[in-house]
Amino acid sequence: MKLMQTPRSMDLSITGRCNLRCAYCSHFSSAGDVADDLPTSEWLTFFEELNRCSVIDVCLQGGEPFVRSDFFELVDGIVKNRMRYSILSNGTLITDEIASFLKASRRCNSVQVSIDGSIPTTHDAFRGEGNFVRALRGLQFLLKHGIQAVVRVTIHRQNVHELERIAEFLLEELGLPEFSTNSASYFGLCRKNSEQVQLSAAERSIAMIKLMELSRKYDGRISAQAGPLAEARLWRGMEQAAAGNAGNIHGGGFLTGCGGTESKLAVRADGVIVPCPQLPDIELGRINEDDLKEIWQTHPELRRFRKRQEISLGDFEFCYGCEYVNFCTGNCPAAAHAILGDAWHPSPDACYREFKKAGGKLPEDAI
Predict the structure, then answer these.
(1) Which tens digits make up the pLDDT trace of 269-322?
(2) Which of 63, 65, 89, 276 is the most exposed place for a label (fewest CB within 10 A)?
(3) Is 321 inside any structural domain?
(4) Which domain holds residue 134?
(5) CA–CA separation, 330 and 168 (whole Å)
(6) Domain count, the chain
(7) What is the CATH number of the domain that holds 50?
(8) Beta partners for residue 274, in sequence order
């Protein structure tokens, strides 16, 4: 596939600050790992370069984007430069004024809000007392003004047995059209607190069974790009392909699990350009100092990432003898980098064979 001349979209960490310190946050390696925000002018100048590069949309994240006092000015700069935007938020700082402003901008694609329980006790266990109520209030303001609100549920050891009640709360009581799920990862504070938050193989199995059941019950209104539900669907496809009951999996047998660097890049809160928010230590350049188009087209690290899909899983000792090797795509390079220090290796966390070795089982109707 021919490479685009410039990235289509950008993930922008407009701040390293956050009003919360969630135990499974993927953006902090320690509670004090924050830096001063870039001046407003630096972001506004960079937005002009994004416009010249024909970037279509940006995702504002952090930290917590709404901690910036100049947030409205930054959004105005995005709109002025003919881009659309989405926001990743914990929801607690969203006010009626903010939601009204987002609606009036006419360029907001969506706002993701994190809701991790059906009751305060569950949500607040790792996010802090009072934040369930605050997040719901922010969510209600978004809904009031017709902003597309995307609720994300992070599944961890404290809420894995509450999934049915969470689905009822979000889809029936709040009347949301859908919600998405993932699970506590291997990044940032989550890695530091892994024993408290990361699912065991048995807990992953419980989550898979329940989420598959709920997905059927609610006619597919539960989505996932990562975590137990996504893994159940992916591994079901691998089982079927291995048994000859399905066609080949696209990219199977090679490290094709992520194609992010074919269409987007990210910027850290300090202005350093990186391949992905989850690969913050692979530095490509700096905004307003290095030419974005040149980085995109010529940087050796990006060229290496784009060659990743040519690496056969059969070349890795880790994959020797695996019956699924020709149907696997190696999953997330950032997870492999976090666990092994090597983004050009299959991720052990998303290995179906390792999951089965640890006693994990797919739902029977997923096979």
Answers:
(1) 999 999 999 999 999 999 999 999 999 999 999 999 999 999 999 999 999 999
(2) 276
(3) no
(4) 9-310
(5) 34
(6) 1
(7) 3.20.20.70
(8) 266
For residue 263, the 8-state DSSP code is T
Residue 165: partners with Cβ closer than 8 Å, 6 or more residues away: 118, 119
pLDDT score of 21 more than 90? no
What spatial distance separates the first Cα and last Cα of the chain, rounded to whole Å? 32
On whether the CB atoms of residues 197 and 185 are closer than 8 A, the answer is: no
pLDDT tens by residue, 144-157: 999 999 999 999 99
Torsion of CA 318, 323, 325, 327, to 10 degrees: -150
Q: Is the pLDDT of residue 195 over 60?
A: yes
Asked, for residue 353, whether it belongs to a domain, the answer is no
Global model pTM greater than 0.85 = yes
Amino acid at 255: L
Residue 334: inside a domain = no
Q: Which of 261, 287, 238, 272 is nearest to 343 (CA)?
A: 261
Q: In whole angstroms, give the CA distance from residue 223 to residue 158.
A: 21
Distances (CA, A) of 285 to 34, 251, 270, 281, 359: 20, 30, 11, 11, 44
Copy the structure tokens of residue 22: 């969630």
338 domain residue, yes or no: no
Any idea how long the chain is? 367
Check if the beta carbon of residue 360 is closer than 8 Å to that of residue 201: yes
CB count, 10 Å around CB of 216? Answer: 11
For 58, the token pair is 């940006």
Average pLDDT value over all residues in the chain = 93
* Whether the predicted pLDDT of 31 surpasses 60: no
